[in-house]
Amino acid sequence: xxxxVLAMLAKEPSHxxxxxxxxxxxxxxxxxxxxxxQIYVTLARLEKAGLVICERAGGLPERPERKVYALTPAGQQxxxxxxxxxxxxxxxLAEFHLKLxxxxxxxxxxxxxxxxxxxxxxxxxxREAQHAALAEPAGAGAGxxxxxxxxxxxxxxxxxxxxxxxxxKVDDEVEGG
Amino acid sequence: xxxxxLVARLVxxxxxxxxxxxxxxxxxxxxxxxxxxxxxxxxDVSEALYEQxxxxxAGPDVVALSGDTGPxxxxxxxxxxxxxxxxxHHGPYRVVYADLTARGLSSNVVVHGFADKPGAVNRxxxxxxxxxxxxxxxxxxxxxxALGVGAGDRVTIAGRSYPVVGIAVTAATSVYPGxxxxxxxxxxxxxxxxxxxxxxxxxxxxxxxxxxxxxALDLKLRDPAATETFxxxxxxxxxxxNFRSWQFTAQQDMGILKHSQPILVVGxxxxxxxxxxxxxxxxxxxxxxxxxxxxxxxxxxxxPGLIATVLLTExxxxxxxxxxxxxxxxxxxxxxxxxxxxxxxxDVAGPTAAxxxxxxVLAVAVAVLSxxxxxxxxxxxxxxxxxxxxAHQPRHRPWITALSALLPTPLLLGLRLTARxxxxxxxxxxxxxxxxxxxxxxxxxxxxxxxxxxxxxxxxLPNLRGEHDRHLMLAVAILLVALAVVxxxxxxxxxxxxxxxxxxxxxxxxxxxxxxxxxxxTAQLLPSLPGAIVGVPLGTGLLSLFxxxxxxxAPSSWLLGAALATLLATAAFTxxxxxxxxxxxxxxxxxxxx
Amino acid sequence: xxxxxxxxxxxxxxxxxxxxQSRVRAVDExxxxxxxxxxxxxxxxxGCGKSTLLHLLxxxxxxxxxxxxxxxxxxxxxxxxxxxxxxxxxxxFIFQAFHLVEELSAAENVELPALLAGRSRRQARxxxxxxxxxxxxAERARHLPSQLSGGxxxxxxxxxxxxxxxxxxxxxxxxxxxxTAATLDVLxxxxxxxxxxxxxxxxxxxxxxxxxxxxxxxxxxxxxVDDTWLAGSHARGLGGLIGLEG
Lengths: 177, 594, 246
Hints:
The complex is a heterotrimer.
Chain A: H1 2-9, E1 14-15, H2 16-27, H3 38-48, E2 52-57, E3 66-71, H4 73-84, H5 94-105, H6 111-135, H7 141-176
Antiparallel strand pairs in A: 1-3, 2-3
Chain B: H1 2-17, H2 19-56, E1 62-66, H3 71-81, E2 86-102, E3 105-114, E4 125-129, E5 137-140, H4 141-147, E6 154-157, E7 160-169, E8 192-198, H5 199-209, E9 213-221, H6 227-233, E10 241-245, H7 246-253, H8 260-285, H9 287-299, H10 304-338, H11 353-380, H12 383-387, H13 398-404, H14 409-418, H15 422-447, H16 464-498, H17 500-508, H18 513-546, H19 556-582, H20 586-593
Parallel strand pairs in B: 3-8, 5-7
Antiparallel strand pairs in B: 1-9, 1-10, 2-3, 2-6, 2-9, 4-7, 5-8, 6-7
Chain C: E1 6-17, E2 24-35, E3 39-43, H1 50-57, E4 65-70, E5 73-74, H2 80-90, E6 91-95, H3 106-116, H4 121-134, H5 150-162, E7 168-172, H6 180-195, E8 199-204, H7 207-210, E9 215-220, E10 223-229
Parallel strand pairs in C: 3-8, 3-9, 6-7, 7-8
Antiparallel strand pairs in C: 1-2, 1-4, 4-5, 9-10
Protein name (chain A): PadR family transcriptional regulator
InterPro entries (chain A): Tscrpt_reg_PadR_N (IPR005149), WH-like_DNA-bd_sf (IPR036388), WH_DNA-bd_sf (IPR036390)
Domain Transcription regulator PadR N-terminal (chain A): 5-79
């Protein structure tokens, strides 16, 4: 989030309000739930870190007293570094995997039930994302992001299917043996 | 050598997979060649039978007949018997014109007065009973068969009862009912049977009832072929004498077969035509498979020639087998077909080389014509496309849509769903037209009135030639109709199989099995309509080529009825396979396609 | 219309294939009720019996046991003819393999069920062009299926399924043969229809298609193992999907 806000400032100094509007435009429906204050919290953190500076600008008649944010040289450097970065968020599957193992070994819960519950949850999310995606015109920026979300969820659901296959077999063996 | 083995193996594999189809081709070719061989050999067979009867009965080379009696005639005949060309003679003998009644049937009869010991020439061959003796009569076999009389029965000749002591055949007269070779006083003849009596019985018969009598003399010439020369040399201006050569009598035997030959030969053409349409439809149904196989063989390096060889070998092998079978059938049935009377004896030799050759050409033509298209297509199709070939590429036929728009909804749907191959529609039309031609011919022949062989043209003794024609025509018509039925069922079934995906789809959309059946039927019935309409004039036209001058046309109500009945029957026969096809479960048909 | 408002209802539904030793229970004691306006997805691995279930609900196959009610009428005992009539008016089918009539143009394909249902040719034509426009294929109406892409063909099939305003649409792997873009096109149409209150039963193994539905049942070996309500509950909000916090 911080990096994205910095990169948006690289074009030109902007009001917090503009930044928020631009973010929401890129994120489409996903940005709707964004807390209105969140952008200011982020800007405050960046200012504290010396990456942006805040200038008071003479407000327009109808919008007086607006703060305009601009990048510092350190901020510039950080943006360049961010663009060159190839880091990728790691899917956090280990936790769920360990949850199943723990539940099974300690007989705390039926792993297959856990998987089913998880599956339902992911399907609900998928449905939301899917509906949002279908509502977007094809090929638009926000639609593309939603497509990514849908595909990730789909991948997760398939993994859950694989989990279910394996764990129900384990169950059978326990019951059978 | 290897390729011959390969071809044989592929052909056998194919035959095993398509038994019904192979059987149909075999059967159709058998019927066609048998009919044609019969048509071509009736003349030969008739001649052969005459020859054998002539040999067995010491048939005369020339029969001299005089319409009058009296001393002038006697001396003229005597001088003939003494002519230098004559090596042997029999007679002169009386020919008495009488009527004969047996088992309630009456007929004209000519009674020959013969010695009780037959002479050197014209020795009738007794086939049952014994030769004439005083008070008893011998009947000619053809005549006796028509009357249903055997040795030991009694017949009434000119009001007097005689026992039939024997049955015999002779080559001196034409087959029944042509025994009277000239009429009384040299006048015209009527249909007559032949009976023999002793000379004195014949004389008594003639004098007691004052019956007309003519005289006959059987002659054996030094040169049997020189009958013409003999007749010309001995024409006497004073006494009128008619000469009947053995060649003439043999020719007269053919009279009864006058219509048999065209019925059989034209019939065989029509049968072949139906065979071609039916087998062509089946072959087209297999075209996709053949095309795929051709592609497969090409892919493994076989030359296009090999593929053509396999395809043609299979059909040719079947056609030639059918040809052989047909010739055997013709050989076995020839005596019945070529000798409708019992007036001749003898065995039939096999068909002549020319007949065999013609029948074989016909069989090969059926095989080649019915498979020409798929073979050519298989050869033309490129290997890769052939391997992925589906049944056939769908084509949009807006005219079908336009045509179907005129019909009630179920028929409209049927046509849109099933009318895939206009070629097959043409075949169906041809098939129907051929059926109607056969039925028109049958009806027209039945509409003819001919003079019966009984006394004064009574039909109590039926006209054997007419009967024979009708029987032959009926047989040919039955064969044609049977083939047409098989064709119609084949066409509908092939269409149903090709359209099964569409029909399954239509059923998911809510088409009832009844609608599907009606649709399939319609797709076959529509082309039958023009076929039936064209068939009537074609049939009458074809017949007019062979008909006698006094022939009558069948009533037009009969012809109209025939066309309608053919259409109704077609509807019934298409509904059968259509209904079977429509009854298949939808889900199964769908998954087979999907 | 029946009192309960169920578009389709099945109880104790059993379908066995084969005989003797090789007898398989494709559908095993299934109870199901789909209220009108609901979009139900049936998920499961291939061979779990979900296609058979769909065929049973649409009257394409007859159950070995149990009952099926469509629009308040019991259909498992109906004659073939009555079933066909019911399908015409009440059921629209969509298949994975499209199952268009290859010899007929897109418009003619869409017209077919309308004509079967006894509409006049003009009505059928008008309705077909309306629906083709709705699925975005107005300019392709005169094309043959073989001249259309997979997605376009499936959209023609959707239009055809809708031509008689069916009580319910039964779809069997509707996107099974489609790429992502074409899948989205079809799902977008489904979503539109769903919001308009069209009842759907969709059989699929694609989570994405299943997620369009209001309700999801999972099938294993001919039985339902899970029945999940997907609609409603925007508990987390869309933002939660991408972790905008921080």
